[in-house]
Amino acid sequence: MVALASVIDPEIRRPITELDMVDTVEVSDTGQVYIRILLTVAGCPLRDTLEQLIGNAVGAIKGVSELQVELGAMSPEQRGALMTRLRGVAQANNPFTQPDCDTTVLAIASGKGGVGKSSVTVNLAVALAKSGFRVGLLDADIYGHSVPDMLGIGAQQPNVVEGTIMPVPAYGVAVMSIAMMKEHRSQVIAWRGPMLDRALQQFLSDVYWGELDFLLVDLPPGTGDIAMSVANLLPTSQVIVVTTPQVAAAEVAERAGTMAYMLKQDVIGVVENMSWLTTTCSHCGATERHELFGAGGGAAVAAALTTRFNHPVPLLSQIPIDLGLRAGGDTGSPIVLTEADHPAALAIQALVTQIAALRA
Fold it and tell me: What angle do CA 136, 139, 142 make, to 5 degrees?
């Protein structure tokens, strides 16, 4: 049982021994081990992952000659008891408004689309998880959801246990998006304000997020319904504004920051994406920096918001253009993992250091 206690359920993110998932353990005198595990539901999409984790943990024990793992399923009563215990109460609630909640909620905003907000959010979430934090990522961009594809889980659907939705794990991050709930990829979401607000409420209340250090919320661009709903449903959320260097993007980004301030959210800083492109001469090896979208936009937004709010809003990071960042978004392989030594990945990791200070 000691080895099984080290096996963490990939969905619930707790040891399987604490979740009453271990039904039977039998060990013969000759080292043959039989283990029966109760999954929350028979069709759990991560059953193969869990079986592999058990095999790795038990197979490493000296003297084990053979291992057989059988995967069963909990009864409705067992599932109900488990979910009631996990959530603390039988009915759904928004865990991030509870007095004992210790989660730092970061809403990632932008004035306009196309500035790489979702790429920044995804890589920041993965980098935080890589640094040892418990991280959740809510794709609140209902119309333009792209987070699942950027994490390589676009084809996966969440497991539902007794009416509770389990986030899909990706690179150590618990992820939820409306994209995972659609019947088919081409389905169009055409909702008005009340439906958008209700969807966000369900993402917060009907999803088992567990204990998180950080919840990142990828907001849609602009100053619409979702931004107002997030301020209402996540009143302690702090906002990071993403922009690019050019004047047109910076001016619109100021509005996103001002909107957050009007909604009584704390704007903690600005991230400038696509700051420059560095090229290397194939002949002499010299490097040259090209500011393709101009310069100074991020600093201008930070300065304008500092003046407007009468308190410091720093420029947290300048992330250079990196083909690996773009390619990683297309393939579902975040650059902070695949090319951690690239300038863009290093800039995001430096941003993690600043974000981590929020919990110091």
Answer: 155
Structure tokens at 58: 């038990």
- The overall pTM is greater than 0.85: yes
Provide the CATH number for the domain around residue 228: 3.40.50.300
Distance between CA atoms of 313 and 241, rounded to whole angstroms?
Answer: 10
Give how many domains the chain has, as a whole number.
Answer: 2
State both tokens at 7: 């096996």
37 beta partners: 22, 71
Q: How far is CA 281 from the centre of its chain?
A: 38
Q: Which domain holds residue 266?
A: 95-359
What the block records as the tokens of 165 is 């939705």
Asked if 313 and 267 count as a contact pair (C-beta separation under 8 A), the reply is yes
Q: How far is residue 210 from each of residues 167, 233, 301, measured CA to CA in Å?
A: 10, 18, 35
Run means of pLDDT, 10 residues per run, the chain, 360 residues = 88 90 92 93 85 92 92 90 73 81 96 94 98 97 92 91 91 95 77 82 92 96 88 94 93 93 95 93 85 94 95 96 94 96 96 91
Q: Can you tell me the distance from the alpha carbon of 29 to that of 186, in angstroms, rounded to the nearest whole number?
A: 56
Residue 87, domain member (yes or no): no
CATH of the domain at 63: 3.30.300.130
Q: Which amino acid is it at 119?
A: S
Q: How many CB atoms lie within 10 A of CB 49?
A: 14
What whole-number distance in Å separates Cα of residue 315 and Cα of residue 151?
27
Report the C-alpha dihedral over residues 113, 358, 129, 2, rounded to 10 degrees.
-150
**Do 194 and 340 lie in a common domain?**
yes
Rounded-to-integer distance, Cα 253 and Cα 264, Å: 17
- Give CA–CA dist 39/19, Å, rounded: 10
CA 201 to chain centre: 17
Q: Are residues 269 and 318 in the same domain?
A: yes
